[in-house]
Protein backbone atom coordinates (compact mmCIF):
# COMPACT_ATOMS: atom_id res chain seq x y z
CA UNK A 1 0.00 0.00 0.00
CA UNK A 2 2.76 2.33 0.86
CA UNK A 3 4.64 1.15 -2.20
CA UNK A 4 1.64 1.76 -4.42
CA UNK A 5 1.18 5.26 -3.05
CA UNK A 6 4.78 6.11 -3.79
CA UNK A 7 4.46 4.85 -7.34
CA UNK A 8 1.38 6.99 -7.87
CA UNK A 9 3.05 10.05 -6.42
CA UNK A 10 6.12 9.39 -8.55
CA UNK A 11 3.98 9.21 -11.69
CA UNK A 12 2.15 12.37 -10.74
CA UNK A 13 5.43 14.08 -10.21
CA UNK A 14 6.69 12.89 -13.54
CA UNK A 15 3.60 14.32 -15.19
CA UNK A 16 3.97 17.59 -13.29
CA UNK A 17 7.66 17.85 -14.09
CA UNK A 18 6.75 17.47 -17.81
CA UNK A 19 4.87 20.73 -17.32
CA UNK A 20 1.85 19.96 -19.51
CA UNK A 21 -1.88 19.34 -19.10
CA UNK A 22 -2.21 17.76 -22.59
CA UNK A 23 -2.44 13.98 -23.17
CA UNK A 24 0.87 12.15 -23.63
CA UNK A 25 2.51 12.24 -27.08
CA UNK A 26 1.41 9.35 -29.37
CA UNK A 27 4.54 7.77 -30.77
CA UNK A 28 2.56 4.77 -32.00
CA UNK A 29 0.60 6.85 -34.57
CA UNK A 30 3.80 8.32 -35.88
CA UNK A 31 5.25 4.84 -36.25
CA UNK A 32 2.19 3.78 -38.27
CA UNK A 33 2.60 6.75 -40.60
CA UNK A 34 6.24 5.89 -41.17
CA UNK A 35 5.39 2.23 -41.84
CA UNK A 36 2.66 3.23 -44.27
CA UNK A 37 5.00 5.50 -46.23
CA UNK A 38 7.58 2.70 -46.34
CA UNK A 39 4.90 0.30 -47.55
CA UNK A 40 4.03 2.43 -50.60
CA UNK A 41 7.71 2.51 -51.57
CA UNK A 42 8.98 5.82 -50.17
CA UNK A 43 12.46 4.30 -49.77
CA UNK A 44 12.74 3.96 -53.57
CA UNK A 45 11.93 7.61 -54.21
CA UNK A 46 14.99 9.80 -53.42
CA UNK A 47 12.99 12.81 -52.31
CA UNK A 48 10.54 10.75 -50.25
CA UNK A 49 13.34 8.69 -48.74
CA UNK A 50 14.91 11.89 -47.43
CA UNK A 51 11.76 12.83 -45.53
CA UNK A 52 11.28 9.26 -44.39
CA UNK A 53 14.72 9.30 -42.79
CA UNK A 54 13.99 12.60 -41.09
CA UNK A 55 10.74 11.15 -39.77
CA UNK A 56 12.51 8.11 -38.35
CA UNK A 57 15.25 10.18 -36.71
CA UNK A 58 12.74 12.48 -35.13
CA UNK A 59 10.66 9.54 -33.90
CA UNK A 60 13.72 8.14 -32.19
CA UNK A 61 14.45 11.50 -30.67
CA UNK A 62 10.86 11.80 -29.45
CA UNK A 63 10.92 8.37 -27.86
CA UNK A 64 13.99 9.41 -25.95
CA UNK A 65 12.20 12.54 -24.77
CA UNK A 66 9.18 10.52 -23.72
CA UNK A 67 11.40 8.19 -21.72
CA UNK A 68 12.89 11.23 -20.05
CA UNK A 69 9.41 12.45 -19.25
CA UNK A 70 9.67 15.49 -21.54
CA UNK A 71 6.28 15.07 -23.09
CA UNK A 72 5.78 18.61 -24.36
CA UNK A 73 9.01 18.57 -26.25
CA UNK A 74 8.29 15.05 -27.42
CA UNK A 75 4.98 16.21 -28.85
CA UNK A 76 6.62 18.97 -30.87
CA UNK A 77 9.18 16.50 -32.22
CA UNK A 78 6.48 13.95 -33.06
CA UNK A 79 4.55 16.62 -34.97
CA UNK A 80 7.59 17.17 -37.12
CA UNK A 81 8.03 13.45 -37.60
CA UNK A 82 4.34 13.12 -38.61
CA UNK A 83 4.72 15.97 -41.12
CA UNK A 84 7.79 14.38 -42.69
CA UNK A 85 6.13 10.94 -42.83
CA UNK A 86 3.03 12.40 -44.53
CA UNK A 87 5.15 14.30 -47.04
CA UNK A 88 7.16 11.14 -47.81
CA UNK A 89 3.87 9.34 -48.47
CA UNK A 90 2.36 11.96 -50.76
CA UNK A 91 5.57 12.46 -52.72
CA UNK A 92 5.68 8.72 -53.43
CA UNK A 93 2.02 8.56 -54.46
CA UNK A 94 2.24 11.62 -56.68
CA UNK A 95 5.27 10.23 -58.52
CA UNK A 96 3.37 7.01 -59.15
CA UNK A 97 0.25 8.82 -60.34
CA UNK A 98 2.27 11.08 -62.61
CA UNK A 99 4.03 8.22 -64.37
CA UNK A 100 0.68 6.43 -64.65
CA UNK A 101 -0.82 9.43 -66.46
CA UNK A 102 2.13 9.60 -68.84
CA UNK A 103 1.72 5.94 -69.70
CA UNK A 104 -2.01 6.23 -70.31
CA UNK A 105 -1.48 9.30 -72.49
CA UNK A 106 1.11 7.40 -74.49
CA UNK A 107 -1.42 4.60 -74.98
CA UNK A 108 -4.05 7.10 -76.12
CA UNK A 109 -1.62 8.64 -78.62
CA UNK A 110 -0.73 5.19 -79.91
CA UNK A 111 -4.41 4.51 -80.56
CA UNK A 112 -5.01 7.90 -82.16
CA UNK A 113 -2.20 7.31 -84.62
CA UNK A 114 -3.72 3.97 -85.56
CA UNK B 1 13.69 22.44 -49.28
CA UNK B 2 16.09 22.88 -46.40
CA UNK B 3 17.48 19.88 -44.61
CA UNK B 4 17.20 20.68 -40.90
CA UNK B 5 19.07 17.77 -39.41
CA UNK B 6 20.67 20.03 -36.87
CA UNK B 7 17.35 21.15 -35.48
CA UNK B 8 17.80 19.05 -32.37
CA UNK B 9 20.96 20.92 -31.38
CA UNK B 10 19.36 24.23 -32.25
CA UNK B 11 16.38 23.29 -30.12
CA UNK B 12 18.58 22.69 -27.10
CA UNK B 13 20.56 25.88 -27.67
CA UNK B 14 17.53 28.08 -28.05
CA UNK B 15 15.82 26.47 -25.06
CA UNK B 16 18.27 28.52 -22.94
CA UNK B 17 16.89 31.75 -24.25
CA UNK B 18 18.30 32.99 -27.50
CA UNK B 19 16.33 36.08 -28.21
CA UNK B 20 15.80 36.89 -31.90
CA UNK B 21 13.49 39.71 -32.88
CA UNK B 22 13.14 38.74 -36.55
CA UNK B 23 11.56 35.54 -37.80
CA UNK B 24 13.64 32.44 -37.60
CA UNK B 25 14.92 30.96 -40.86
CA UNK B 26 12.42 28.19 -40.34
CA UNK B 27 9.56 30.68 -40.22
CA UNK B 28 10.84 32.44 -43.34
CA UNK B 29 10.96 29.08 -45.12
CA UNK B 30 7.48 28.27 -43.91
CA UNK B 31 6.08 31.53 -45.22
CA UNK B 32 7.70 31.06 -48.59
CA UNK B 33 6.51 27.49 -48.80
CA UNK B 34 2.97 28.63 -48.12
CA UNK B 35 3.14 31.32 -50.81
CA UNK B 36 4.30 28.69 -53.29
CA UNK B 37 1.53 26.36 -52.21
CA UNK B 38 -1.08 29.06 -52.84
CA UNK B 39 0.11 29.37 -56.43
CA UNK B 40 0.37 25.65 -56.96
CA UNK B 41 -2.28 23.12 -58.00
CA UNK B 42 -3.28 23.00 -54.32
CA UNK B 43 -5.50 26.03 -54.81
CA UNK B 44 -7.72 24.19 -57.32
CA UNK B 45 -7.25 20.57 -56.42
CA UNK B 46 -6.61 20.35 -52.67
CA UNK B 47 -7.92 23.51 -51.01
CA UNK B 48 -8.53 21.65 -47.75
CA UNK B 49 -4.85 20.74 -47.50
CA UNK B 50 -3.99 24.34 -48.29
CA UNK B 51 -6.19 25.46 -45.44
CA UNK B 52 -4.51 23.03 -43.10
CA UNK B 53 -1.15 24.48 -44.16
CA UNK B 54 -2.43 27.97 -43.46
CA UNK B 55 -3.54 26.96 -40.00
CA UNK B 56 -0.14 25.46 -39.31
CA UNK B 57 1.53 28.66 -40.48
CA UNK B 58 -0.77 30.68 -38.25
CA UNK B 59 0.28 28.58 -35.26
CA UNK B 60 3.92 29.20 -36.14
CA UNK B 61 3.27 32.93 -36.50
CA UNK B 62 1.53 32.92 -33.15
CA UNK B 63 4.49 31.20 -31.55
CA UNK B 64 6.76 33.82 -33.11
CA UNK B 65 4.60 36.63 -31.78
CA UNK B 66 4.48 34.97 -28.41
CA UNK B 67 8.15 34.16 -28.04
CA UNK B 68 10.23 35.19 -31.04
CA UNK B 69 13.11 32.90 -31.88
CA UNK B 70 11.87 30.18 -29.59
CA UNK B 71 12.28 26.51 -30.17
CA UNK B 72 8.50 26.29 -30.39
CA UNK B 73 8.48 28.83 -33.23
CA UNK B 74 11.13 26.87 -35.05
CA UNK B 75 9.43 23.54 -34.57
CA UNK B 76 6.00 24.81 -35.60
CA UNK B 77 7.55 26.58 -38.63
CA UNK B 78 9.16 23.34 -39.65
CA UNK B 79 5.79 21.63 -39.47
CA UNK B 80 4.12 24.53 -41.35
CA UNK B 81 6.65 24.32 -44.15
CA UNK B 82 6.13 20.59 -44.49
CA UNK B 83 2.37 21.05 -44.54
CA UNK B 84 2.63 23.69 -47.26
CA UNK B 85 4.78 21.34 -49.33
CA UNK B 86 2.33 18.60 -48.61
CA UNK B 87 -0.52 20.75 -49.95
CA UNK B 88 1.40 21.48 -53.19
CA UNK B 89 2.26 17.86 -53.79
CA UNK B 90 -1.26 16.81 -52.92
CA UNK B 91 -2.58 19.28 -55.50
CA UNK B 92 -0.42 17.68 -58.15
CA UNK B 93 -1.58 14.26 -57.02
CA UNK B 94 -5.24 15.16 -57.38
CA UNK B 95 -4.59 16.70 -60.78
CA UNK B 96 -2.79 13.53 -61.83
CA UNK B 97 -5.78 11.48 -60.79
CA UNK B 98 -8.10 13.66 -62.82
CA UNK B 99 -5.79 13.59 -65.83
CA UNK B 100 -5.60 9.82 -65.50
CA UNK B 101 -9.37 9.47 -65.50
CA UNK B 102 -9.65 11.74 -68.55
CA UNK B 103 -6.93 9.87 -70.38
CA UNK B 104 -8.59 6.55 -69.63
CA UNK B 105 -11.90 7.89 -70.88
CA UNK B 106 -10.24 9.17 -74.05
CA UNK B 107 -8.62 5.78 -74.49
CA UNK B 108 -11.90 3.93 -74.11
CA UNK B 109 -13.66 6.36 -76.43
CA UNK B 110 -10.99 5.93 -79.08
CA UNK B 111 -11.10 2.18 -78.67
CA UNK B 112 -14.87 2.18 -79.11
CA UNK B 113 -14.57 4.43 -82.13
CA UNK B 114 -11.95 2.21 -83.72
CA UNK B 115 -13.98 -0.87 -82.99
CA UNK B 116 -17.14 0.63 -84.47
CA UNK B 117 -15.20 1.80 -87.49
CA UNK B 118 -13.75 -1.67 -87.99
CA UNK B 119 -17.18 -3.23 -87.58
CA UNK B 120 -18.61 -0.79 -90.12
CA UNK B 121 -15.83 -1.60 -92.54
CA UNK B 122 -16.50 -5.29 -92.11
CA UNK B 123 -20.22 -4.75 -92.72
CA UNK B 124 -19.52 -2.59 -95.77
CA UNK B 125 -17.07 -5.14 -97.10
CA UNK B 126 -19.65 -7.88 -96.65
CA UNK B 127 -22.28 -5.80 -98.45
CA UNK B 128 -19.87 -5.01 -101.24
CA UNK B 129 -18.96 -8.65 -101.54
CA UNK B 130 -22.62 -9.65 -101.68
CA UNK B 131 -23.29 -7.01 -104.35
CA UNK B 132 -20.29 -8.15 -106.36
CA UNK B 133 -21.48 -11.71 -106.06
CA UNK B 134 -24.92 -10.71 -107.31
CA UNK B 135 -23.34 -8.87 -110.23
CA UNK B 136 -21.25 -11.90 -111.01
CA UNK B 137 -24.27 -14.17 -110.91
CA UNK B 138 -26.23 -11.80 -113.17
CA UNK B 139 -23.33 -11.46 -115.57
CA UNK B 140 -23.04 -15.21 -115.76
CA UNK B 141 -26.73 -15.51 -116.43
CA UNK B 142 -26.48 -12.90 -119.20
CA UNK B 143 -23.53 -14.64 -120.76
CA UNK B 144 -25.39 -17.94 -120.75
CA UNK B 145 -28.39 -16.24 -122.39
CA UNK B 146 -26.18 -14.60 -124.99
CA UNK B 147 -24.42 -17.84 -125.70
CA UNK B 148 -27.69 -19.67 -126.25
CA UNK B 149 -28.76 -16.74 -128.47
CA UNK B 150 -25.55 -17.09 -130.46
CA UNK B 151 -26.10 -20.81 -130.81
CA UNK B 152 -29.64 -20.14 -132.00
CA UNK B 153 -28.42 -17.59 -134.54
CA UNK B 154 -25.73 -19.99 -135.72
CA UNK B 155 -28.32 -22.72 -136.16
CA UNK B 156 -30.52 -20.29 -138.08
CA UNK B 157 -27.58 -19.19 -140.18
CA UNK B 158 -26.64 -22.79 -140.89
CA UNK B 159 -30.22 -23.58 -141.87
CA UNK B 160 -30.22 -20.55 -144.17
CA UNK B 161 -26.94 -21.61 -145.74
CA UNK B 162 -28.29 -25.09 -146.27
CA UNK B 163 -31.45 -23.71 -147.86
CA UNK B 164 -29.43 -21.45 -150.12
CA UNK B 165 -27.10 -24.29 -151.09
CA UNK B 166 -30.11 -26.46 -151.85
CA UNK B 167 -31.65 -23.68 -153.94
CA UNK B 168 -28.44 -23.16 -155.85
CA UNK B 169 -28.18 -26.89 -156.35
CA UNK B 170 -31.68 -27.14 -157.74
CA UNK B 171 -31.10 -24.04 -159.93
CA UNK B 172 -27.91 -25.60 -161.25
CA UNK B 173 -29.73 -28.87 -161.80
CA UNK B 174 -32.53 -27.10 -163.59
CA UNK B 175 -30.05 -25.18 -165.71
CA UNK B 176 -28.26 -28.45 -166.48
CA UNK B 177 -31.47 -30.13 -167.60
CA UNK B 178 -32.32 -26.97 -169.56
CA UNK B 179 -29.44 -27.63 -171.87
CA UNK B 180 -31.44 -30.62 -173.07
CA UNK B 181 -34.14 -28.42 -174.43
CA UNK B 182 -32.27 -25.18 -175.11
CA UNK B 183 -28.86 -23.86 -175.86
CA UNK B 184 -27.29 -22.58 -172.64
CA UNK B 185 -24.17 -20.51 -173.09
CA UNK B 186 -22.18 -18.34 -170.74
CA UNK B 187 -21.27 -15.02 -172.31
CA UNK B 188 -19.93 -11.72 -171.09
CA UNK B 189 -23.42 -10.31 -170.82
CA UNK B 190 -24.59 -13.29 -168.68
CA UNK B 191 -25.93 -16.83 -169.12
CA UNK B 192 -27.84 -16.93 -172.36
CA UNK B 193 -30.64 -19.49 -172.85
CA UNK B 194 -31.57 -19.54 -176.49
CA UNK B 195 -34.92 -20.98 -177.54
CA UNK B 196 -35.79 -21.60 -181.15
CA UNK B 197 -38.67 -19.37 -182.32
CA UNK B 198 -40.17 -22.27 -184.23
CA UNK B 199 -40.77 -24.35 -181.11
CA UNK B 200 -42.30 -21.40 -179.24
CA UNK B 201 -44.61 -19.50 -181.53
CA UNK B 202 -47.16 -19.88 -184.24
CA UNK B 203 -45.49 -18.72 -187.43
CA UNK B 204 -45.54 -14.95 -187.81
CA UNK B 205 -47.42 -14.45 -184.53
CA UNK B 206 -46.65 -13.83 -180.92
CA UNK B 207 -48.94 -16.62 -179.77
CA UNK B 208 -47.22 -19.35 -177.72
CA UNK B 209 -47.58 -22.90 -178.94
CA UNK B 210 -48.84 -25.52 -176.46
CA UNK B 211 -45.53 -27.39 -176.68
CA UNK B 212 -43.70 -24.18 -175.80
CA UNK B 213 -45.19 -24.32 -172.30
CA UNK B 214 -43.26 -27.49 -171.39
CA UNK B 215 -39.96 -25.87 -172.28
CA UNK B 216 -40.88 -22.59 -170.68
CA UNK B 217 -42.00 -24.43 -167.51
CA UNK B 218 -38.51 -25.82 -167.20
CA UNK B 219 -37.01 -22.41 -167.86
CA UNK B 220 -39.29 -20.90 -165.22
CA UNK B 221 -38.19 -23.56 -162.73
CA UNK B 222 -34.52 -22.67 -163.09
CA UNK B 223 -35.23 -18.94 -163.01
CA UNK B 224 -37.31 -19.07 -159.82
CA UNK B 225 -34.38 -20.13 -157.60
CA UNK B 226 -31.94 -17.52 -158.88
CA UNK B 227 -30.01 -15.30 -156.45
CA UNK B 228 -31.72 -12.04 -155.53
CA UNK B 229 -29.14 -9.96 -157.37
CA UNK B 230 -29.77 -11.69 -160.68
CA UNK B 231 -31.99 -10.15 -163.41
CA UNK B 232 -33.58 -11.73 -166.47
CA UNK B 233 -33.75 -10.14 -169.86
CA UNK B 234 -36.12 -11.81 -172.34
CA UNK B 235 -35.09 -10.72 -175.85
CA UNK B 236 -36.94 -11.44 -179.02
CA UNK B 237 -35.20 -11.61 -182.46
CA UNK B 238 -36.40 -12.06 -186.01
CA UNK B 239 -34.72 -12.73 -189.33
CA UNK B 240 -34.23 -9.95 -191.85
CA UNK B 241 -37.28 -10.74 -194.07
CA UNK B 242 -40.03 -8.17 -193.86
CA UNK B 243 -40.16 -4.56 -192.71
CA UNK B 244 -37.87 -3.47 -189.84
CA UNK B 245 -40.65 -1.91 -187.79
CA UNK B 246 -42.88 -4.97 -188.23
CA UNK B 247 -40.08 -7.24 -187.10
CA UNK B 248 -39.35 -4.99 -184.19
CA UNK B 249 -42.95 -5.09 -183.06
CA UNK B 250 -43.20 -8.85 -183.54
CA UNK B 251 -40.04 -9.46 -181.58
CA UNK B 252 -41.30 -7.19 -178.76
CA UNK B 253 -44.71 -8.95 -178.68
CA UNK B 254 -42.98 -12.32 -178.55
CA UNK B 255 -40.67 -11.22 -175.75
CA UNK B 256 -43.71 -9.97 -173.80
CA UNK B 257 -45.51 -13.26 -174.32
CA UNK B 258 -42.59 -15.25 -172.98
CA UNK B 259 -42.21 -12.87 -170.05
CA UNK B 260 -45.90 -13.08 -169.16
CA UNK B 261 -45.75 -16.84 -169.24
CA UNK B 262 -42.66 -17.02 -167.07
CA UNK B 263 -44.28 -14.66 -164.56
CA UNK B 264 -47.39 -16.82 -164.53
CA UNK B 265 -45.13 -19.72 -163.60
CA UNK B 266 -43.82 -17.91 -160.56
CA UNK B 267 -40.88 -15.89 -161.78
CA UNK B 268 -40.86 -12.46 -160.06
CA UNK B 269 -42.05 -9.88 -162.57
CA UNK B 270 -39.82 -7.10 -161.25
CA UNK B 271 -36.79 -9.24 -162.11
CA UNK B 272 -37.74 -9.72 -165.74
CA UNK B 273 -37.72 -7.29 -168.63
CA UNK B 274 -38.89 -8.03 -172.16
CA UNK B 275 -37.02 -6.45 -175.05
CA UNK B 276 -37.71 -6.57 -178.75
CA UNK B 277 -34.54 -6.53 -180.88
CA UNK B 278 -36.04 -7.04 -184.28
CA UNK B 279 -33.54 -7.93 -187.01
CA UNK B 280 -30.57 -6.89 -184.87
CA UNK B 281 -27.79 -9.22 -183.77
CA UNK B 282 -28.27 -12.09 -186.18
CA UNK B 283 -26.47 -15.24 -185.13
CA UNK B 284 -26.43 -16.74 -188.60
CA UNK B 285 -26.57 -15.64 -192.22
CA UNK B 286 -29.99 -14.43 -193.32
CA UNK B 287 -29.28 -15.69 -196.87
CA UNK B 288 -30.05 -19.34 -196.13
CA UNK B 289 -33.24 -20.86 -194.74
CA UNK B 290 -31.31 -22.55 -191.92
CA UNK B 291 -29.61 -19.29 -191.05
CA UNK B 292 -32.87 -17.42 -191.05
CA UNK B 293 -34.44 -20.10 -188.87
CA UNK B 294 -31.63 -19.70 -186.36
CA UNK B 295 -32.08 -15.96 -186.25
CA UNK B 296 -35.75 -16.34 -185.40
CA UNK B 297 -35.22 -16.93 -181.69
CA UNK B 298 -35.82 -15.81 -178.09
CA UNK B 299 -32.88 -15.28 -175.81
CA UNK B 300 -33.40 -15.40 -172.08
CA UNK B 301 -30.35 -13.76 -170.50
CA UNK B 302 -29.65 -14.30 -166.81
CA UNK B 303 -27.38 -11.44 -165.72
CA UNK B 304 -26.11 -9.54 -162.73
CA UNK B 305 -27.21 -5.90 -162.35
CA UNK B 306 -23.83 -4.77 -163.72
CA UNK B 307 -24.19 -6.93 -166.78
CA UNK B 308 -27.78 -5.71 -167.18
CA UNK B 309 -26.67 -2.06 -167.09
CA UNK B 310 -23.94 -2.69 -169.65
CA UNK B 311 -26.31 -4.38 -172.10
CA UNK B 312 -28.95 -1.64 -171.91
CA UNK B 313 -27.23 0.53 -174.50
CA UNK B 314 -28.79 1.12 -177.87
CA UNK B 315 -32.03 -0.88 -177.55
CA UNK B 316 -35.48 0.42 -178.35
CA UNK B 317 -38.84 -0.98 -177.20
CA UNK B 318 -38.38 -2.17 -173.66
CA UNK B 319 -40.82 -3.40 -171.06
Kindly name the structural category of chain B.
alpha+beta
Q: Tally of extended strands of chain A?
A: 0
Portion in helices of chain B: 55-70%
Strand order of the largest sheet of chain B: 1-2-5-3-4
- The total count of helices of chain B amounts to 10
Question: Termini separation of chain A (Å)?
Answer: 86 Å
Which sequence of SSEs, written as H and E, runs from N to C of chain B?
HHHHHEEHHEHEHEH
Largest sheet of chain A: none
- The CATH class of the largest domain in chain B: Alpha Beta
> Would you identify the CATH architecture of the largest domain in chain B?
2-Layer Sandwich
Percentage of β-strand residues of chain B: 5-15%
Q: What's the β-strand tally of chain B? A: 5
The CATH superfamily of the largest domain in chain B is known as OmpA-like domain
| Largest two-chain interface | A-B, 29 and 31 residues
Summarize model confidence as the mean pLDDT of chain B: 90
Q: Give the tally of structural domains of chain A.
A: 1
Radius of gyration of chain A: 22 Å
Amino acid sequence: MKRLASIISLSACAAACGGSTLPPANAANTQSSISAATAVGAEQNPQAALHLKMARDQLTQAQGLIDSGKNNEARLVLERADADAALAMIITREAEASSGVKKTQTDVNALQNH
Amino acid sequence: MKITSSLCLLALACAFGCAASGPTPELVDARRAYDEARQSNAASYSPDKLLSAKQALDKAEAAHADDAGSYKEQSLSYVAQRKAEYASVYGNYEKDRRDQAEAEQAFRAKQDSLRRSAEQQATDAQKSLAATWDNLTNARREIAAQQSQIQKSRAELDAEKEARAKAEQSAAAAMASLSKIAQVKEEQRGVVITLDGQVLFVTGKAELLPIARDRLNQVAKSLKDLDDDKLVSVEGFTDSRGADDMNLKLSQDRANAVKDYLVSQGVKPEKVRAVGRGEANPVASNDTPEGRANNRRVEIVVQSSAQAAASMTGSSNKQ
